[in-house]
Specification:
Elements (H helix, E strand, L loop, with lengths): L1 E5 L7 E2 L2 E2 L1 H18 L3 E5 L10 H15 L7 E4 L6 H4 L3 H5 L3 E4 L11 E7 L2 E8 L4 H19 L18 H18 L8 E6 L2 E3 L20 E3 L8 E4 L6 E3 L1 E6 L16 E6 L8 E6 L6 E6 L1 H7 L5 E9 L8 H5 L3 E9 H16 L5 H13 L5 H18 L1
Bound molecules: manganese (II) ion.
């Protein structure tokens, strides 16, 4: 079996106020072309299809066009989609039953009652069957009722109350609230996986959108994920043992967790400046005979506009780019020693999508100046200004500048008096 693994499309996302829709439609077209060329057996989308739980109409249209094109390929290529923390489970599930007839499978919500189960799509090849399990993004609260019912049922059946979930709590050391929440997350995911009949003699794949840790090792994040502060929602990868491959979403930097075959494929575009050096790609997973390690291939994605950091003096940057206009999303760090006249306006003639212009030196000096202020309180405004000026500009006031300053202060005193 060969699968494409995608996640964190975040359709509708903005970057520093710029709409990324055009970039997203462009990259989804590239992904479509790759699907058309490579013809995988299935496409797995591991959550965060949209950036907001109520996506803009334009965002829905962009995803609709992508899905429609993929579903028109013959022979059909099934697309399996789970919800991420940014998606609304119910909205994402709209029309799921109808879509499944086109082999577009959507798992938006978690099981809510005893007879509801995780969605599973079975694929067939020369080595037999492969089950792909779909676990939508889950918080303990989403399935608490179901867990309690199931615990009661197990307790009744066992008589003595030896249920698998939490019934031995009394023997434990009292937990901090933090530990309790973390245990809750782990037990929730474990509960949802253990109540399925996973036949480990076959090949099994899981699609999931959670913050997984491997033996305490945590994934490397970027600035664009919405991560719970303090890592309360961490889930240990131990519960993923039955799966030959785990297609993860949530973390935007591509990486494996614990073993090669538990993998975050990363977002399809760079969604923060901190990701400027990352290479985004489509992950291809090849599963052969049962028990054999999957082979992973990356297809790099080249965006319409890059996200990059440009560092140098204003003159250097203007000179190096003088013959072009760049549409890339740029974060510019100016290293000039002197105060500059309207640097952004000058840079805008070359760069049409400036995310930010930072002046490295001034940041540093302004901070030093601020820190210095705490130690000695200067009350003479002229001296305060002279001090500030010399720290920012790196020189003393010229005589004529001092005169202008003197005039300004005289005028202010006059107005005040
Ligand atoms: Mn995400």
């Amino acid at each position: 079996m060969r699968f494409f693994h995608l996640s964190d499309l975040h359709i509708g996302k903005q970057l520093y106020g710029y709409s990324l829709l055009e970039d997203q439609e462009w990259i989804l077209n590239k992904i479509y072309e790759l699907i058309d060329k490579e013809r995988p057996d299935g496409v797995l989308i591991a959550g965060d299809v949209y950036d907001k739980s109520v996506p803009a109409a334009e965002a829905v249209t962009v995803f609709d066009r992508f899905l429609t094109k993929v579903s028109q390929l013959e022979p059909k290529i099934p697309v399996l989609i789970i919800s991420g923390n940014h998606d609304s489970p119910e909205r994402l599930s709209f029309g799921a039953e109808i879509l499944s007839r086109q082999q577009v499978y959507v798992a938006g919500s978690c099981p809510q009652s005893e007879n509801e189960h995780l969605k599973k799509v079975t694929f067939q090849d020369a080595w037999g069957e492969t089950d792909v399990w779909m676990l939508p993004f889950v918080k303990p609260g989403y399935v608490r009722k179901l867990m309690e019912e199931s615990r009661k049922k197990t307790d009744r059946e066992d008589g003595a109350g030896q249920g698998s979930y939490g019934s031995q709590e009394a023997d434990r050391e009292p937990e901090t609230e933090r530990e309790e929440i973390r245990r809750d997350y782990n037990e929730t995911v474990k509960f949802l996986l253990e109540r399925e009949n996973i036949d480990t003699a076959r090949r099994n794949i899981l699609i999931s959108h959670q913050f997984y840790t491997a033996g305490g090792e945590i994934p490397k994040t970027s600035d664009s994920e919405t991560i719970t502060v303090g890592g309360l929602d961490q889930v240990e990868t131990a519960c993923l043992a039955p799966f030959s491959y785990v297609a993860l979403g949530h973390i935007h930097r591509p990486q494996s967790m614990g073993r090669e075959s538990i993998r975050y494929c990363g977002s399809m575009l760079k969604y923060s400046v901190s990701e400027w050096a990352q290479e985004k790609s489509v992950t291809e997973v090849i599963l052969e005979a049962p028990g054999q390690e999957p082979v992973i291939r990356l297809h790099p994605l080249k965006p319409l506009r890059e996200v990059c950091v440009i560092r140098g003096t204003l003159e250097e940057i203007l000179e190096a780019n003088k013959d072009r206009v760049s549409e890339d999303y740029v974060s510019i760090v100016l290293t000039d020693e002197q105060e500059l006249y309207q640097p952004k306006e000058q840079l805008e003639r070359i760069f049409t999508h400036i995310l930010e212009v930072r002046t490295e030196r001034n940041w540093k000096l302004a901070k030093e100046w601020e820190d210095g202020q705490e130690e000695e309180t200067q009350t003479d405004p002229k001296l305060v200004f002279e001090q500030f000026f010399s720290q920012i500009q790196g020189r003393q006031l010229l005589e004529e500048e001092a005169e202008v300053l003197e005039e300004v202060f005289a005028k202010v005193r006059e107005d005040e008096g």
